[in-house]
Amino acid sequence: MMRKLLALSLAAGMLAFTTGCPSKDKTTKTETTTGSGTDQKASLELAPPGDVKIKQGGEAPVHVKVTRKNTNEDITVKFSDLPEGVKVKEESTAITGGEGDGKFTLVATADAKETKDKAAKVTVTDKTGKLTAHQSFKVTVQPK
Question: Could you state, in chain order, the average pLDDT of each consecutive group of 10 residues for the chain (144 residues)?
């Protein structure tokens, strides 16, 4: 009985180790080959935004940081899986060519659903649609 319990614990530990846990210090990166004659790798790296706490009826900033390599295309920024009643304030969610930072604002309605650590996602895509990267972050909606 003890051996079975030990084997089961070991198997569960190995499964957890191999699947891993998301880390706040990792970036996602997508590369594509561009150019004519002398191919260059173009890439976008997206740093994870910090977790966001927002009160019902309030606003909170989100900082999106992108590192570019061999690309100056405009980047579209898309937020998804936000909590119910939370949206992005800015009409244009883009980072213009050559820039690496975007500052955006999340807005919660007065009746936004209270939520703790809701997994949300930010995705960046270049104008060509060939380069894309995404990161997860947590959004907490607190009562007024």
Answer: 46 40 46 48 94 98 95 94 97 90 97 97 93 96 96
